[in-house]
Design brief:
Rossmann fold; five-stranded parallel sheet; 5 strands; 36% helix
Amino acid sequence: MEPNQDIIENPEKKKRILLIEDDSFISQLYALKFSKTPYELILARDGAEGLALSKDQKPDLILLDVILPKENGFSVLESFKNDEATKNIPVILLTNLGQQENIQKGMNLGAADYVIKAHHTPQEVIEKVEPFLR
């Protein structure tokens, strides 16, 4: 009996990371950094675009800013975790909100990690996402 080709994971397939970030300078900085990695970075400018891209592109991991236009990252995270199609994708909140209550709120909503942008270089962020992509 032949194995079903649809369920065999291709080891050459690039892992996809969806970055939901409204600041174009930060997005481009991460795009440049991730271009030097084996990962494919997909960019979204707001939560609605991120939600749509997550269903279309099926990322392996989501980096999500909290301060976004239209809908904040906490409500976007809640939408990801309440949707069957996206609930198992690890979401790392990547934000400058460092207050303990924000960190606790993000973790309670199901974030895999909470990274404060000002405390981490883009290279350190890449190192933080790698264990979630193995």
